[in-house]
TrEMBL record:
Domain named Aldehyde dehydrogenase: residues: 12-471
Keyword Protein transport: no
Protein name: Aldehyde dehydrogenase family protein
InterPro entries the record matches: Ald_DH/histidinol_DH, Ald_DH_C, Ald_DH_CS_CYS, Ald_DH_CS_GLU, Ald_DH_N, Aldehyde_DH_dom
Length: 476
């Protein structure tokens, strides 16, 4: 098997250590072998990016726009193949893998356009004759640390704005899913990006991720809260600009006046699709008493029919957990929920399929309270809980009563409650009659409280992080 290497200073560089990329639907299937970078190689990548920065940051905007457009086009042309690689290495169903690859292509094309739209401001001064101009400049060398759950979309939504606004990049993807990141690096390098402008270093978070933070000018991280805290501490130590996207414990409020069919569909989609491995997944379903029993029965019925299996099989609706550690964590929380006195309505069992993989049945708990660990801690698996509440006011209180604030949803036909919820939810993203997960690529993404730190990602708001503002005063 050929070893896919790291991209440093425009060359594909070997390493002695290798990451074996395993298919979670079939652990006998090795997706590929990937070189694990050393700390010295990370330093070389950062140095290469630094050397490339002066020319890249001043390069004609048409060149940058064309390059991002070209990268986006190749991703879109190869979306089926890339989606298949994604499904194979991460375990989300093939259609979702292709959807994510498509999204990555669109993101590059969007930022190809944004290159041409970066704006400044010109203001009058309080001092006669003086002119003030406010402009945005690239930051320098940006380190990107990404998780395994969206192995092509998250790297894309960090790389594309970073390059668009004239920064140089060193990407450290998750160890579990280097395949999509490598494919993306290959596309970027063949698009003609100058050497050193984009670098890929694969490997462990504690070694490679940490070495990266030690050298860059800014850092964008997506991952878990505990890792986010470590990353933040290291970034603060160096006083670099940083941005964190982390976990969620996203509520879906279901009111008595909701359309039951809509409520059940968005709950099942939000809580169980992609095996619950989305930071925007609906984990807490907060349901008013008039619809509660009908809702619980209907969700249980729907998830009992979900086809759990190999991500690459067309009939599969829910794939495996990404690895043994994640599966163990999911099953541990199923046990914790039962110990805490929640009523297990369905699932939460280890499943066996034709191939050895990390399968489990979707799990639904009812009669939970918001102080239970299953409602406080992020599980990141197909485990949904239902909290019964009296009325809308209690539902809103419970929805906001969490350390997280990424996404929050409500199923209702009441305009009054929908509007009140949009105004009073303490989340960065609010969904009315839509799943908490599943967002557009051209608008800001991010949360509040422990879910996020720093400026939003995606859409034109990405410029907040990937540029720095300069105010210049001139007396002509
Ligand atoms: P998850 O396992 O859910 O992806 P993590 O927070 O463990 O979440 O990982 C997110 C990313 O952070 C991965 O690329 C991982 O390798 C990286 N990482 C893990 N530990 C550290 C660390 N101490 N410093 C920098 N990056 C890290």
């Amino acid at each position: 098997m050929t070893i896919n290497r790291n991209l440093i200073a425009g060359s594909w560089v070997e390493s002695t250590d290798v990451i074996r990329n395993i298919n979670p639907s079939n652990t006998d299937d090795v997706v590929g072998e990937y070189a694990s970078a050393t700390a010295e190689q990370v330093e070389q990548a950062v140095a290469a990016a630094r050397a490339a920065f002066p020319a890249w940051s001043r390069s004609p905007i048409q060149n940058r726009a064309d390059m991002l457009e070209k990268i986006g086009n190749e991703i879109l042309e190869r979306r089926d193949e890339l989606g298949r690689l994604l499904a194979r290495e991460e375990g989300k169903p093939l259609a979702d893998g292709v959807g994510e690859a498509t999204r990555a292509g669109h993101i590059f094309k969007f930022f190809g356009g944004e290159v041409l739209r970066l704006q400044g401001e010109k203001l009058a001064s309080t001092r006669p004759g003086v002119e003030i101009e406010i402009t945005r400049e690239p930051i320098g060398v940006v380190g990107l640390i990404t998780p395994w759950n969206f192995p092509i979309a998250i790297p894309a939504w960090k790389i594309a704005p970073a390059l668009a606004y004239g920064n140089c990049v060193v990407l450290k993807p998750a160890e579990l899913t280097p395949g999509c990141a490598w494919a993306l690096a290959d596309i970027i390098s063949r698009a003609g990006i100058p050497e050193g402008v984009f670098n890929l270093v694969m490997g462990s978070g504690s070694k490679i991720g940490s070495a990266l933070i030690g050298g860059v000018d800014a850092l964008s991280f997506t991952g878990s809260v505990p890792t986010g805290r470590k990353v933040a501490a290291q970034a603060v130590e160096r006083m670099i600009k940083f941005q964190l996207e982390m976990g969620g414990k996203n509520p879906l409020v279901v009111l008595d006046d909701a359309d039951l069919e809509t409520a059940v569909s968005i709950a099942v989609n939000g809580a169980y699709f992609q095996t619950g491995q989305r930071c925007t997944a609906s984990s807490r379903m907060v349901v008013t008493q008039g619809i509660h029993d009908r809702f619980v029965d209907a969700v249980a019925d729907r998830i009992s029919k979900l086809v759990v299996g190999d991500a690459l099989k067309p009939e599969t609706q829910m794939g495996p957990a990404v690895d043994q550690r994640q599966l163990d964590q999911n099953l541990k929380y199923v046990a914790i929920g039962q110990e805490e006195g929640a009523r297990k309505v369905f699932g939460g069992d280890r499943l066996n399929r034709d191939t050895p993989g990390f399968y489990m049945s979707p799990c639904l708990f009812a009669e939970t309270t918001n102080d239970m660990r299953v409602n406080r801690e992020e599980i990141f698996g197909p485990v949904g809980t239902v909290i019964r509440v009296k009325d809308y006011e209690e539902a809103l209180h419970v929805a906001n009563d969490t350390q997280f604030g990424l996404s929050a949803g409500i199923a209702t036909t009441s305009l009054k409650h929908a509007n009140h919820f949009r105004a009073n939810s303490q989340a960065g993203m609010v969904m009315v009659n839509l799943p908490t997960a599943g967002v557009d690529y051209h608008v800001p993404f991010g949360g509040r409280k422990a879910s996020s730190y720093g400026p939003r990602e995606q859409g034109r708001y990405a410029a907040e992080f990937y540029t720095t503002v300069k105010t210049s005063y001139t007396l002509p």
